[in-house]
Design goal:
This protein is of the alpha/beta class. It has ten helices and twelve strands. The structure holds iron/sulfur cluster (SF4).
């Protein structure tokens, strides 16, 4: 007798638009300029894909000092500090800019606020490269708040323009905006939360209601994958967080029939295919 698992994959699994675009740029860079191609840190938060790319000649480096003059540097989808770009250009480094258009939109808004001498508030994690990049475009005096408590501690302002880290949770952002609205007379909010991330979270939540167990596939260092997993846990659906098919334990499915599968925005198709193949193998085997 076979187990006969039913596997339902989220319609929002695999790379998001911005990561797809970045990966295409890397492929084009390799084809046009040859290896090596450099990235500042890992190009995406997926250790298996970073390893595959390294074998093709895509090398993560810690700083511009590790890139020789005339070398090719890919700027990641979220890492875009303007001073870094200027320094790379001064050093004669060729830049392939993979900045996601959604992140660029936030940069555009903070520049606009700056031109109107309107103080800028960024809602987000100040350690995140995207927030640091946007802050770089906002110039001096930018305020970063990560939660409602920080917003409540701000001195009152006559006016301020707000942008939000693209991957920030909407519910949390709304709480912060409510607090800011009580402290800033003229508050102008630009909703810069990425729709792709929101759609993925909503699809994962809907799928979690229909299955016995959720498999969340992605880098353990990927914050959006961690958040997807937490979403399933909070919905009280049994869930497992894996990076690759090797981590799957057939024992997880002893009393399970329907499995939902979702992934972070940096999970490549080849890893998803390997997970699906492993689940099919387990499904074809008799239960222990
Ligand atoms: S998560 Fe959204 S903002 Fe970030 S790279 Fe993907 S599409 Fe762009």
């Amino acid at each position: 007798m076979k187990r006969k698992l039913e596997i339902l994959t989220s319609p929002h699994a695999g790379y998001c638009f911005g990561v797809k675009r970045a990966m295409r740029l890397i492929e084009q860079g390799l084809a046009c300029f040859g290896a090596p191609i450099f990235t500042l840190g890992d190009v995406i938060h997926n250790p298996q894909e970073v390893e595959r790319l390294e074998a093709l000649g895509v090398r993560p480096v810690a700083s511009l000092d590790d890139v020789q003059e005339g070398g090719t540097l890919v700027l990641r989808a979220h890492r875009v500090h303007p001073e870094l770009i200027r320094e790379a250009e001064r050093r004669g480094i060729r830049i392939l800019d993979a900045t996601c258009p959604f992140v660029r939109r936030s940069q555009h808004f903070v520049k606009q606020f700056g031109e109107e001498s309107c103080p800028v508030i960024i809602i987000g994690d100040r350690e995140h490269p995207e927030v640091q990049g946007i802050a770089g475009h906002a110039g001096a005096g930018v305020i970063i708040v990560k939660d409602a408590a920080e917003a409540a501690a701000l001195a009152p302002l006559e006016r301020a323009g707000v942008v939000i880290q693209t991957t920030f949770a909407r519910e949390e952002a709304e709480k912060i905006i409510d607090v800011l609205a009580a402290r800033v007379d003229d508050l102008r909010v630009q909703d810069t939360i990425c729709q792709a991330t929101e759609a993925r979270r909503e699809a994962a939540l809907a799928l979690a209601q229909r299955v016995d167990l959720m498999l969340v596939v992605g880098g353990k260092n990927s914050s959006n994958t961690k958040r997807l997993f937490q979403l399933c846990v909070d919905a009280r659906v049994p869930a497992r967080f894996i990076e690759s098919a090797d981590e799957i334990d057939p024992g997880w499915f002893a009393s399970t029939r329907r499995i939902g599968l979702t992934t972070g925005t940096s999970t490549p198709d080849w890893l998803i295919d390997a997970v699906l193949k492993r689940l099919e193998e387990i499904s074809a085997c008799p239960p222990p």
